[in-house]
Amino acid sequence: MPEGPSLRKFHHLVSPFVGQQVVKTGGSSKKLCPAVLQSLWLLDAQVRLVLHFGGGGFLAFYSCQMSWSPPPELSPTCDILSEAFHRGQALEALGRAQPVCYTLMDQRFFSGLGNIIKNEALYRAGIHPLTPGALLTPSQLEALVDHVVQFSAEWLKDKFQGTRRHTQIYRKEQCPAGHQVLKEALGPPAGLQRLTWWCPQCQPPLPPEEPQ
Ligand SMILES: [Zn+2]
């Protein structure tokens, strides 16, 4: 799954062509004959393929997957890179009983958040991935959302500047403090299991609750 910053940069590059008509097509694809796009109008930027436009400009897509798809139904209030991102809604979702690493990957609440952002935000917030959200304090939840938004925005900025965003925990053997990092596939019982990296010292598990 591509993460938000990659998609945002693509959208930024493609959007000047929205509203223009395809006057000539080129390239090849097993899934879709590029000729069927001739004389169609680019209505929205969602999508091997070359589209030529009336103004002389063209767009070339390499190694991409093409399919006809309905418009996205997700609201900008869930988009971690949107100004309309609704913090309150995100905090409420994160505060549920299930492990925070499951909720972070739920695109209904954190659209654009992928495995790299999940790992990095949890490390920076010092939160163990399997901590049930309901056991975190409001300030820990706030800090986690802050790190999600901040890391995503910085990554997007790096992409526009053509620089690589360095990760602190994702695919690392040691955390920046020099501790040995643990790795395990984690996810909801019936859902996708994603490789998760965490530092047992910087992100300690919460002690079990005392019986009442
Ligand atoms: Zn550490």
Describe this structure as you would to a colleague.
- Binds EP300.
- This is Endonuclease 8-like 2.
- It is found in: Nucleus.
- Its EC number is 4.2.99.18.
- It is an enzyme of class 4 (lyase).
- The chain is α+β, with helices and mostly antiparallel strands.
- It folds into 2 domains: about 5-60, no CATH class; about 75-195, Orthogonal Bundle (Helicase, Ruva Protein, domain 3), CATH 1.10.8.50.
- About 30% of the residues lie in helices and about 10% in strands.
- It has 5 helices and 5 strands; from the N terminus they run H-E-E-E-H-H-H-H-E-E.
- The chain has helices at about 5-15, 85-95, 100-105, 115-125, 140-160; strands at about 20-25, 50-55, 60, 180-185, 195-200.
- The protein has a 3-stranded antiparallel beta sheet with strand order 1-2-3, with no helix packed on it.
- Strand 4 and strand 5 form a beta hairpin.
- Helix 1 (about 5-15) packs across helix 5, helix 2 (about 85-95) packs across helix 5 and helix 4 (about 115-125) crosses helix 5.
- The longest helix has 24 residues, at about 140-160.
- It is elongated.
- The mean pLDDT is about 85.
- The structure holds zinc ion.
- Zinc ion binds near residues 175, 179, 199, 201 and 202.
Ligands present: zinc ion
Major β-sheet annotation? 3 strands, antiparallel
What percentage of amino acids are in beta strands? 5-15%
CATH class of the largest domain: Mainly Alpha
Strand order of the largest sheet: 1-2-3
Please tell me how large the radius of gyration is.
21 Å
Structural class: alpha+beta
Helix content: 25-40%
Structural domains: how many: 2
GO molecular function: class I DNA-(apurinic or apyrimidinic site) endonuclease activity; damaged DNA binding; hydrolase activity, hydrolyzing N-glycosyl compounds; zinc ion binding
Subunit structure: Binds EP300.
Domain FPG-type: 168-204
Protein name: Endonuclease 8-like 2
